[in-house]
Structures are given as structure tokens and as C-alpha cells.
Inverse folding.
């Protein structure tokens, strides 16, 4: 039997579905995948993607296409927290390279790796639209701008 | 010079994102008036035309003209889509509109819906913008509760259902037809045009796609009859006060640089990318007294684009910068059409070789030729966007590339 | 019409058509990869860029609609520059491994690169490599060669209606495939091999077998269903190396069922018979043709003399050629034997005199897609007649509605307007009739079906599927369908079993009609009577009783209990060796010449493309010599075409009695078994096609499929073993709980080694835990 989504998840998906015409359930797939991903420690397993496909009523491969296309979906296990450090030009001009080095050495991982304790996954991000506060990063849902080494220390300190 | 008078007019109000704050500065006045007077949509279009408002997403298409493509009395469902998928490197204006003035955007969307007879609108917001999404959702709930949106608004018989929809991390979804595909729950792949969204948009229905800033400008323009020529510049890079500045188009770069506090650490200006990373770069001597408007920049061989002004000082390595820009287009190419899918990676790889001192003399011309091979040969403008920086960097800073070889 | 200019030539074009369509019509070559005339326009490969006057940039010819006064140049400097640029991009990450690529010689990329590519590569960076996925036994992948044209993806979306392939990831890391490694299971999956312009998707059974230029191409037809899809056989060294589609807009368009494409792999199966054989003292002896034929004919004569001709029966495959069918009945009737039949899966023979001249769909196959309303009764169409399912899908895509009455909520490749899922097909069809006659109302689905058939103004059709045709009360279902069609104006028809049931009817391979459908006074026994109680002797022509008959092993027992059995066959098997007394080896489908009459009544010729295996001989010759030896008149043929001509000269009967049977009430007392035949068990050839037998549809391990209610009622769990009993027979199988099955319905496939012990004509069954 295939995995079924728990009711608290489907209730949330139903809210997204309500935004779209009845015959356009596929429109809710991105939001649904976010809900499912957040409920699964930040990543999507094949079983969960299949469950979303079944619930929304779309071909499984169409869900895989979406999940593998957008950068905010992770298809492999990730750390408890995700750090997206912007490395695009506006941040680069304001020192994102040294922030990147600092973060990597501090966490002792490279980009697209997870710390040994499973706490943090570090990613390099494309422009996150906060160039006025460059260099910046996104920690889970939160933006942090005008980064310095001290800010990084504080941020990592606060992580549970 | 007046600044921050249109989309950012609420910035000075505490908790500007709330309904109360917005109404305190005259928010929803225009919308109520339209509903009450049942204003002739043509009159609204006429006012917009007079204001000279041009699309703020990058292409600069006259908004009033776009709004005439969909007629109010056309049968069947029509849609308004707000493009809040801000992603052009260097651009961060729409984020602040949604964070600080979400109701004005809702009002603008509602008016667009009224003009085109679309009772449903989607505001597609990039998935990383959690805070703006939360602000938009809260504002939407307030507006719906106040019966300013929804069914039979204020007894006018007019319906307007606005929904916020989130993206999930793909620059290409800022391209309007890719956005429509994404809205339909697919990969964001740009569609070949024709047909245009006005004829065949979301779910195959007539659809108007406008940028956030464009729609948020509408209430103020209609209220005041002014400010059609105001534009937000997102200034970033080597300046003392990076940030958004909503100023009249035609302001010279020198004035804009002054507003942004001048060059960081007093360094010398080397060059400026005037309209987001896709825009061809201009060397300091060409940009300094350039009026920052659509036509002047076009004449200079670059573009106003989204108004993202990236300022580069004398220490900037142009090879490294271009390599990073090329990485971006490689990363964000949707992979649909051949020249962009294969060409963006090719250029990026050559650039990294050059950057690491492994380039050859032929590489520079090859880069230029690859860029020409992409240019104009793809479904959407991402191919061109990837090609233009390469060509302009080589054109203006060839010696820096040669020096790396 | 619109006037435009292409390369200086003035062209009249239809409004809304594209530049490429018109260029193709005028044979002006424009290179392309993603464009395909049967698929939607993707405009993603960019190879067809052409120069259009007043356009800022080159335009894709596939996606650009023509306009009045438009001027197009396909070979201008601008156009050629664009085409060269795109060609280079296509090749940068392509492995250029043509010498070891199966597509070499018929590769669109190779061909176009000759015209538009450079003679060296400017690409000095590392090339992309893609890890391959195993897509199952039919399709080989080399995805590093993929150029992302998405034809295979669009095929699934648009044509087969089963999205299996997708484009995952993005940018240069976009990968075409199934994402999760899994077999592609659709019954028409291998069409993506033809669609793939490069060597990314190739035929797995054909892999590295021959180069395209080494093979000779012969036209042929598919011989596993009554549609008769058009094919080409590619032959090298007296061996069929592969089968590809031959375009025929009236039938298969360009699509082949995997069954028609890969059944050639059975041609040289181990069970092919090399020489004639006879059994003496329970041992098989290879003998000369003369001896074997003499043995056969004297045996038949002996049985007829000893027990009477009514105690000998001939059963012929519905997939034999019309010439073989005609000669067999002529031989048998010449010997006074009237027990002749091809209807091996039929259970209900009532009203056989009311059957039309030959079975049809009621409308031309090509017109299925034009139907506005279609009712399917008792059929899993995609798994019975894949090409018909593609047509049904087309009807839906073009705005038609399809509804069904079925014992299982089958997964169709099209959306249904309504489905009545029930074990009582007759009852539900009667209800549809009652609603139409305003006698009563039915279930919601029945009402919708009646509404659909009554209200739709366009063409309407009722199709009976295999489960209806095999139904023990099939004659009542047919009578109901006819009454409904009389009321609603819907046409009525079905796809018969085998490739040439139409030929069998027309040539007189039924016990109650002579060639041409003319009635006879000497009505023989039908297949049911011949197999239910043993006769004294049988001639089996291309028939393996336990697999080809609805009676399963019981049919085998009946035959084995007789005194003398002649097996005329291409393949032998352990059971044939047990029951037969003489085996006469005949040419396999690709080795013989003959005609097949399809569901539209179209005669299609099959010509031998290789020599017969071993000493086997064309079937028509074997039958002729048997008749000659029996000293029958009128068997002086020297060529098969003389047989064909003789059949063609027969004037066919036109009027037949009406099936006015009224349906009796139908209830399920216990449990009711339905017995589908797997797609890949329909005849001896596909049962021996190795690659097809490795697919999921081969259903090698059939289960007892019941729904959760039935399972609960009996006390069975998913995966447990249970035994099914009926009429003193039983089988033990694993249980599969399938929520799609109707209440009180048990689905157990027939034509399978494991299920053959339980004859499929017995539908009232008991299921017990064990």
C-alpha cells in the first residue's frame, strides 16, 4: 500500500486547493510539497512525493518533475536547519566570499553538506532579493542581512 | 526631489503594513470610489496612459496598452496575475513593497481586476520571501474581512478574489509565461509566444501579468494623476547606503549615487550594471551623467530593466564577476531549449578556466561567439540575459580577460 | 487560405498552420528534432529556426503560424547561422559515439549534423554524463545521448495518456527518464523508441543485433489483434531483427502496441518444430512429410469411419490466415466433418445464427475518435486492444465522452464520464435500457450512461470488451446492446479475439455457416461442445487447448481422451506432445503468405519475409496435400493466391436473423469470477516472445484479486494463499486485495499455467482460506 498523508497535512493542502478552480488541483502542488517537506525534517522522500501525487490526483512523474526543478525542495535528508548563503554578485561585491569561508570553516563543512551532528545544511544560494543588506543569508525562513563574522557567530550560537 | 511617494509612500507610517495604517494615508480610497461610481474602465486606462506608466518588471511595456488587450466584457473567466517573483540579481524592491505596503498592492491588483473584468487574481511570490508572504497573507485576510475584497465588494456586485501563491526557488518563474506554468503546478518553463497570455494565459484563459511595482503604483497614480514616471531603483554594491530609492525616471546616475551615499570607502567608480545582472555593463565614464530612464539607457546599449543598479568600484575583478554571473544563468536556465541549456554551462566553464589562468587566446572570441549563438535563439529572454553580460564585459573590459590568460 | 512565400516560392497555406507544416508539404527541408507531426509543438530544440521578414530574430518554423504575405527564408544567411549555432549546442554534450550507437545510420542527429554541423568540435570542457535507468525488458537507454527534445515525454502525456517519462531537474542537469528507476509498463511504451531522434532510447531486444543498412525492410501487419496494425519487418540473414511501425492513418497511424512490435522475438523460439513427427508406442519419431501426412489423413478418416464424422472436430486459431481457415473447413467439410470452429474463448453460443457476416466495431476504426459518446461494457480496453485504447483516448481528447460498465474500475488512459463497477454486467446494461425506456431509474452511473447515450447529438457507440464476449450470457449482453443502439441510434460492435476472426467467419470456420456466411443444414458442434465433452478425434490448427480455450486444462483433458489428434502447429510443447499423435510443422507468421481481414473488413496481405524454419511448410500447402491425399476434389492449387482468389469470388450473405433475446434477471449468489486474458497470453507466439514475457503485463504470477469487502467477508488477507473452487475444479493462488474490484467479484486470469486447472467458463466460484 502506498503512503497516505496524515489528516493535519491534508487539511492544510485543502486550503491551498481552495485557491484554484476544482479542475486545477495540480496548482496546489508546490504549496503541498512545502507542507509535506516541513513536516518531514526538511526533505521529500519518494513515498511522500507519491502520496502528494495521489492526494492531488496527478501523475507521480509530474510531482518528481516539480520537486526536482525548484531549488527549495530537497530530495535527500538535510540537517535540522538550512542556511542559504547568497553568493550572487551584489553579495559578492560586499564580501560574501569571506563569509562563505568563515561559515564553512566554522561548521566544518562545504556547500551542500550537513554538519556531522545533523544540525545544519549549508547551501550557496542565488540572489535572494535583499541586496541592500548584502552580504546576507537565509536561515530556515528568516533573512539575516549585513552579515559580519560576529553576526554569524551569534546566529550559530542561537541555533537549537 | 520628492522620493518614496508612490509604492513606498507608507514607509514613514508605523506598522505601515496594517489596514488601519494604510487607510490612514488614504489607502483604498481609489478602490472605494471606483466601486461606488462604477467608473468606466476605459477612463482608468486613459488615466494610466496619460501617466506614462510602463511595466516595472524589466521590459517596460506601457501598462495602459497591456490592459486594453483584455476586454472587460469578454466572456469566460479572466485572470490578473501579479508577478512578485523578484529574482533578477540586484533587485529587491518588490520585497519591500510587500513587507511595508501590502495593501497598496492588493488595491492595485483589485483595480486591475476591475478594469479587465477578472474576478480572480493570483499574486505569485517567490518561495524564499517568507516574511513578504506572511505580510501579504495578513493583509489579504484583513482586506477580505473588511469586505474590500471577496464577493459583492461593498455591495457593488463586483467580485474580486485575490490569492497569494508561493514559488519554490526558480529565477525563471519571473518570466511571465514560466510563472503561469508554475502557477499551474508545473515546472516553470517559458511558453512560446504567440499565443500571448492575454489570449491564452493561466489555465488557457485570458490573463494579464503585471509586476508588483507596476500594480502597486496604480492606486497612487489614479489618485494623484502624477508619479507615472516614478521608479524604484535598487542600488547595491560598492556604495555607502545601498537600498531602494523611489525617484523620478531620468535622474542621472550621479544623483542616484549621491542618494546612495556615494562610493564606499571613497573608492573610484569602475562600472555600473544599470538594470539587474542581465543588463549590459557600462564603464564609469559612460554612466556617470546618464539619465536613468528606459530610452537613454537603451540608446547606450544597455537597459533599465528592473531598476537594479549594481555599482562596481575600481578593485572589482571583471572576470570573476562575469564568471559568477554566468554561473547564475547556468544554474537558473530551465533547460528547455538547446542554446541556453547547453550554452550557459559552456560559457561558465570557459570563464572559470580563464579565471584560474587556464584560458587560451581563442577563448575570449569563443565566448563572444557562443553568446551570439544563444542570443535571439531561445524561447524566452533568459538566453539573451545570459549572453548580454558576456558580450558587454568582453567589449568594455577585454584587457582584463587577456591579462588572465 | 493564406498566401505566403517560402524561399521565394509562393505557397497557399491553411490559416493557423505552421511554417514547418507547409515547408514539409512542399518538401522544403527544415531540420528539426523536437517537432513531430503527431505531437504538440514544444519549440524547444530550436533547430528549425528560420528567417522571417520583419522579425527581430529567427523564428522556430514549428511554432510560428503562417500569416498573409509572410516571407520566410529557410536558407538565408541569418537562418543558416541560427541553425549552425543550435547544431553546435546540441552536439557539445552529445557523446558523438556513433560507431557504438544502435541509432547510427538512422539517427536524426547524425543526419542533421552532416548538413549543419562543423567538422570539428570547439567544445573543450568536460562532457555531461547521465546515469542510465533500466526501463525494463523492451527499451534500452543511453541517456547521455539524450538531446532533451521531450518527444517521449509528450508521447506519454498526449498519445498514450500514461505519463511515465518526465524531464526532471533543470538547466543542463535536466534528465529525461522515470526519475525513480522503474519499468515503463504501458502496453504501447516502445513507441518512444521510434520517436527518439537519437540513440538515447533504443530497442533492447534489437540491441547490437544489426546495423540499419544491413537489413531489408518488408511491409507486414500485426497479427495479434483484429486491428492489424501496419508494420515493417527488418530482416537480416534470413532473420527478423526487429519490427517498426508502418504509417497507416486508417489503422494504427504510426503507433504500435508493444505486442505487435516484439512478438517477432518468438520466431526462433526453442519450441519451434523442425520436422514432422508421429507418435508410435508413446514415443515420438521424426518422419518424412509424406509419412506424416499419410498418417494424419488416414487417422482422420479412420475416426470418421469408425465413430462417424460427428465425432471428429477441427479447431483453428482465430489468428490463422484466411486461406488456411478456408482450406481447413473445405478439407473438413470435404471429409464430411462439420465440427469446425475458431471461437475458442466463447462460452455462450446462443444466437450464433444472429451474428453478422463478420465481427466489426460498428464504425470504421478510424472514426472511433470522432465519436461523441462511447459506452464500454466488460472490457479493459488498453490491455485488450492497445490501438483501440489510443483511439478512445483521442475521442476523449477531442471532446467525446466515454463511460463503462465493468467488474473492475480499470485504470484507463482517458477520463471516464461515468463508470458502473459491478459483477452483474447484464443487470446494469438492462438498467441502462430501462432508464432509456423510462421504465425506472438506475444508479447514478447508470443514469449518466443513459443520459450520455440519449442526449448526445453526435455519433455514439457501444463496445463490448473481452469480458463481455466471454460472458456465459454474452448473447443477452449483445441483445441488450442492440436494443439500446436501436433506441439511441448508437452503433454497436466489438473487437474480436485473434487477428483474423473476421476471416474465420467469412471463410466458414464456424459450425453453422458455410464460406460467405451462408447457412448450412449440417450444423456441426461449436467449440464449446467440442471441448466440454471429448470427441473421438481432433485436428488442432495452431491451437494449444489449455491456453487458447476458455476451458483451460479441461480442454486439454478432453482432447487427450480422444483416440487421434493431429496438431498442425509452428510450436510444440509438452502438452501438445502428450495429446497429439502427429505433429505437422507449419510456417510461422513471418514465414508465410496469406491474408488477414481486420475489424474494418479490410484485407491485408502478409508475405513471407524469411524461409520457413527447418522443414516446416506453409500451412495452406499442408492442408492442400492432406486434401490431395484424401482424394478430395478442388484442391489443385499451385499458389496461395489461387486460394485467395477463390475466397474473393464467394458472394457473401447479407441478411441474418436478429438477436431478439430478452435478458433474464441477473444476481450474484456466491462469488463471480471474471477471467481476463493477459495481453501477452493471447496466442502461442506472444506467449513465447521472451521480452514481452518479462513485462508486468505478462502477469506470470496471477492472483486472486478481490476487494477489501469481499476479502473481509471470506476472511482473507492480502498476500495469503486461498483456494478457489468451482464445479469440482480448484486452484490455489495468492490473494491480492484490490480496491478497484467490484463487490463479490473475483478476478483470476485465464490462459495461465497456474490458473488453467480452473476452467474459466465456470463463473460461480467459492473462495476458501487455506
Amino acid at each position: 500500500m502506498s503512503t497516505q498523508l496524515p489528516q493535519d497535512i491534508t487539511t492544510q493542502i485543502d486550503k491551498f486547493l481552495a485557491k484554484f478552480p476544482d479542475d486545477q488541483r495540480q496548482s496546489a502542488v508546490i504549496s503541498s510539497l512545502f507542507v509535506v517537506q516541513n513536516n518531514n525534517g526538511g526533505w521529500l522522500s519518494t513515498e511522500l512525493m507519491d502520496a502528494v501525487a495521489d492526494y492531488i490526483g496527478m501523475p507521480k512523474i509530474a510531482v518528481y518533475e516539480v520537486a526536482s526543478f525548484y531549488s527549495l525542495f530537497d530530495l535527500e535528508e538535510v540537517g535540522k536547519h538550512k542556511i542559504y548563503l547568497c553568493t550572487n554578485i551584489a553579495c559578492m561585491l560586499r564580501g560574501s566570499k569571506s563569509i562563505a569561508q568563515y561559515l564553512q570553516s566554522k561548521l566544518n563543512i562545504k556547500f551542500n553538506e550537513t554538519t556531522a551532528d545533523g544540525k545544519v545544511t549549508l547551501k550557496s544560494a542565488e540572489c535572494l532579493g535583499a541586496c541592500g543588506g548584502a552580504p546576507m543569508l537565509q536561515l530556515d525562513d528568516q533573512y539575516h542581512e549585513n552579515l559580519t563574522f560576529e553576526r554569524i557567530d551569534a546566529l550559530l550560537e542561537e541555533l537549537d | 526631489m520628492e522620493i518614496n511617494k508612490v509604492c513606498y509612500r507608507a514607509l514613514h507610517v508605523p506598522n505601515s503594513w496594517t489596514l488601519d495604517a494604510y487607510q490612514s494615508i488614504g489607502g483604498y480610497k481609489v478602490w472605494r470610489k471606483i466601486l461606488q461610481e462604477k467608473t468606466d474602465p476605459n477612463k482608468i486606462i486613459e488615466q494610466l496612459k496619460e501617466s506614462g506608466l510602463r511595466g516595472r518588471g524589466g521590459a517596460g511595456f506601457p501598462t495602459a496598452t497591456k490592459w486594453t488587450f483584455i476586454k472587460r466584457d469578454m466572456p469566460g473567466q479572466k485572470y490578473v496575475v501579479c508577478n512578485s517573483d523578484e529574482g533578477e540579481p540586484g533587485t529587491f524592491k518588490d520585497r519591500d513593497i510587500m513587507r511595508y505596503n501590502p495593501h497598496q498592492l492588493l488595491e492595485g491588483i483589485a483595480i486591475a481586476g476591475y478594469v479587465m473584468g477578472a474576478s480572480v487574481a493570483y499574486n505569485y511570490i517567490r518561495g524564499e520571501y517568507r516574511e513578504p508572504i506572511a505580510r501579504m497573507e495578513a493583509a489579504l485576510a484583513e482586506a477580505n474581512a473588511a469586505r474590500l475584497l471577496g464577493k459583492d465588494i461593498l455591495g457593488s456586485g463586483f467580485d474580486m478574489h485575490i490569492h497569494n501563491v508561493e514559488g519554490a526557488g526558480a529565477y525563471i518563474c519571473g518570466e511571465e509565461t514560466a510563472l503561469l506554468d508554475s502557477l499551474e503546478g508545473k515546472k516553470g518553463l517559458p511558453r512560446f509566444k504567440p499565443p500571448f497570455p492575454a489570449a491564452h494565459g493561466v489555465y488557457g484563459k485570458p490573463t494579464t501579468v503585471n509586476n508588483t511595482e507596476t500594480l502597486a503604483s496604480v492606486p497612487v497614480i489614479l489618485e494623484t494623476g502624477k508619479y507615472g514616471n516614478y521608479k524604484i531603483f535598487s542600488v547595491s554594491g560598492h556604495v555607502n547606503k545601498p537600498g531602494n530609492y523611489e525617484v523620478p525616471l531620468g535622474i542621472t546616475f550621479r544623483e542616484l549615487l549621491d542618494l546612495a551615499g556615494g562610493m564606499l570607502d571613497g573608492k573610484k567608480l569602475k562600472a555600473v550594471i544599470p538594470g539587474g545582472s542581465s543588463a549590459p555593463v557600462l564603464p564609469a565614464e559612460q554612466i556617470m551623467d546618464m539619465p536613468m530612464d528606459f530610452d537613454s539607457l537603451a540608446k547606450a546599449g544597455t537597459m533599465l530593466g528592473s531598476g537594479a543598479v549594481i555599482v562596481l568600484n575600481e578593485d572589482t575583478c571583471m572576470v570573476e564577476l562575469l564568471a559568477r554571473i554566468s554561473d547564475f544563468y547556468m544554474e537558473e536556465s530551465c533547460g528547455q531549449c538547446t542554446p541556453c541549456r547547453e550554452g550557459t554551462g559552456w560559457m561558465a566553464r570557459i570563464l572559470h578556466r580563464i579565471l584560474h589562468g587556464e584560458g587560451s587566446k581563442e577563448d575570449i572570441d569563443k565566448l563572444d561567439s557562443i553568446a551570439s549563438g544563444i542570443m535571439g535563439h531561445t524561447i524566452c529572454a533568459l538566453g539573451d540575459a545570459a549572453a548580454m553580460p558576456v558580450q558587454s564585459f568582453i567589449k568594455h573590459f577585454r584587457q582584463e580577460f587577456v591579462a588572465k590568460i | 487560405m493564406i498566401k505566403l512565400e517560402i524561399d521565394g516560392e509562393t505557397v497557399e497555406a491553411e490559416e493557423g498552420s505552421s511554417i514547418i507544416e507547409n515547408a514539409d508539404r512542399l518538401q522544403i527541408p527544415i531540420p528539426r528534432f523536437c517537432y513531430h507531426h503527431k505531437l504538440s509543438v514544444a519549440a524547444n530544440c530550436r533547430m528549425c529556426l528560420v528567417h522571417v521578414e520583419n522579425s527581430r530574430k529567427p523564428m522556430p518554423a514549428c511554432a510560428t503560424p503562417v500569416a498573409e504575405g509572410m516571407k520566410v527564408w529557410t536558407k538565408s544567411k541569418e537562418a543558416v547561422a541560427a541553425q549552425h549555432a543550435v547544431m553546435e549546442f546540441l552536439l557539445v554534450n552529445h557523446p558523438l559515439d556513433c560507431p557504438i550507437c544502435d541509432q547510427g545510420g538512422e539517427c536524426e542527429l547524425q543526419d542533421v549534423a552532416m548538413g549543419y554541423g562543423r567538422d570539428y568540435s570547439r567544445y573543450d570542457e568536460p562532457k555531461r554524463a547521465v546515469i542510465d535507468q533500466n526501463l525494463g525488458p523492451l527499451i534500452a537507454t543511453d541517456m547521455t545521448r539524450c538531446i532533451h527534445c521531450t518527444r517521449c515525454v509528450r508521447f506519454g502525456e498526449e498519445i498514450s495518456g500514461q505519463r511515465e517519462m518526465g524531464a526532471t531537474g533543470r538547466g543542463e542537469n535536466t534528465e529525461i527518464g522515470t526519475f525513480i528507476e522503474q519499468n515503463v509498463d504501458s502496453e504501447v511504451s516502445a513507441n518512444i523508441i521510434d520517436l527518439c531522434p537519437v540513440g538515447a532510447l533504443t530497442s533492447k531486444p534489437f540491441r547490437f543485433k544489426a546495423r540499419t543498412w544491413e537489413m531489408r525492410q518488408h511491409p507486414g501487419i500485426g497479427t495479434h489483434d483484429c486491428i492489424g496494425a501496419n508494420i515493417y519487418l527488418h530482416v537480416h540473414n534470413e532473420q527478423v531483427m526487429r519490427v517498426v511501425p508502418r504509417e497507416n492513418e486508417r489503422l494504427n497511424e504510426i503507433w504500435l502496441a508493444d505486442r505487435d512490435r516484439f512478438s517477432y522475438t518468438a520466431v526462433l523460439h526453442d519450441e519451434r518444430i523442425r520436422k514432422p513427427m508421429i507418435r508410435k508406442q508413446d514415443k515420438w519419431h521424426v518422419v518424412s512429410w509424406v509419412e506424416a501426412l499419410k498418417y494424419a489423413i488416414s487417422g482422420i478418416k479412420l475416426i470418421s469411419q469408425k465413430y462417424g464424422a460427428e465425432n471428429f472436430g477441427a479447431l483453428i486459431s482465430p489468428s490463422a490466415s484466411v486461406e488456411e481457415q478456408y482450406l481447413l473447413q473445405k478439407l473438413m467439410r470435404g471429409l464430411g466433418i462439420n465440427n469446425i470452429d475458431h471461437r475458442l474463448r466463447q462460452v455462450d453460443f446462443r444466437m450464433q445464427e444472429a451474428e453478422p457476416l463478420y465481427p466489426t466495431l460498428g464504425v470504421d476504426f478510424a472514426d472511433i475518435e470522432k465519436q461523441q459518446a462511447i459506452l464500454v461494457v466488460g472490457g479493459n480496453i488498453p490491455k485488450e486492444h492497445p490501438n483501440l485504447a489510443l483511439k478512445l483516448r483521442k475521442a476523449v481528447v477531442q471532446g467525446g465522452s466515454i463511460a463503462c460498465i465493468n467488474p473492475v474500475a480499470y485504470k484507463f488512459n482517458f477520463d471516464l464520464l461515468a463508470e458502473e463497477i459491478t459483477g452483474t454486467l447484464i443487470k446494469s446494461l438492462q438498467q441502462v435500457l430501462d432508464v432509456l425506456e423510462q421504465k425506472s431509474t438506475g444508479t447514478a452511473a447508470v443514469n449518466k450512461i443513459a443520459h450520455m447515450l440519449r442526449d448526445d447529438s453526435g455519433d455514439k457507440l457501444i463496445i463490448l470488451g473481452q469480458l463481455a464476449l466471454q460472458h456465459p450470457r454474452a448473447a443477452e449482453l449483445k441483445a441488450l446492446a442492440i436494443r439500446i443502439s436501436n433506441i439511441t441510434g448508437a452503433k454497436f460492435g466489438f473487437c474480436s479475439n485473434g487477428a483474423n476472426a473476421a476471416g474465420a467467419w467469412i471463410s466458414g470456420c464456424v459450425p453453422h455457416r458455410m464460406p460467405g456466411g451462408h447457412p448450412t443444414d449440417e450444423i456441426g458442434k461449436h467449440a464449446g461442445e467440442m471441448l466440454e465433452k471429448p470427441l473421438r478425434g481432433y485436428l488442432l490448427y495452431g491451437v494449444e487447448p489449455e491456453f487458447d480455450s476458455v476451458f483451460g486444462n479441461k480442454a486439454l483433458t478432453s482432447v487427450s481422451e480422444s483416440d487421434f489428434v493431429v496438431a498442425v502447429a509452428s510450436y510444440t510443447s509438452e502438452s501438445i506432445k502428450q495429446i497429439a499423435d502427429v505433429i505437422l510443422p507449419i510456417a510461422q507468421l513471418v514465414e508465410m503468405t496469406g491474408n488477414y481481414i481486420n475489424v474494418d473488413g479490410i484485407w491485408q496481405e502478409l508475405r513471407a519475409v524469411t524461409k520457413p524454419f527447418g522443414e516446416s511448410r506453409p500451412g495452406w500447402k499442408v492442408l492442400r496435400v492432406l486434401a490431395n491425399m484424401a482424394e478430395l476434389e478442388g484442391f489443385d492449387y499451385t499458389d496461395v493466391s489461387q486460394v485467395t482468389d477463390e475466397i474473393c469470388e464467394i458472394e457473401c450473405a447479407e441478411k441474418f436473423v436478429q438477436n431478439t433475446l430478452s435478458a433474464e434477471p441477473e444476481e450474484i449468489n456466491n462469488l463471480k469470477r471474471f477471467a481476463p486474458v493477459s495481453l501477452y497470453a493471447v496466442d502461442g507466439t506472444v506467449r513465447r516472445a521472451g521480452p514481452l514475457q518479462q513485462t508486468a503485463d505478462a502477469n506470470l504470477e496471477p492472483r486472486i484479486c478481490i476487494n477489501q469487502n469481499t476479502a473481509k467477508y471470506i476472511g482473507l488477507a492480502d498476500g495469503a494463499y486461498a483456494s478457489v473452487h468451482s464445479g469440482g475444479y480448484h486452484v490455489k493462488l495468492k490473494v491480492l486485495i484490490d480496491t478497484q474490484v467490484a463487490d463479490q467479484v473475483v478476478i483470476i486470469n485465464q490462459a495461465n499455467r497456474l490458473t488453467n486447472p480452473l476452467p474459466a467458463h465456470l463463473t460461480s466460484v467459492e473462495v476458501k482460506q487455506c
Q: What stands out?
A: Chain C touches chain A at residues 163-170, 178-180 (CB under 8 Å). The two ends of chain C are 73 Å apart (CA to CA). Chain C has 23 helices and 32 strands.
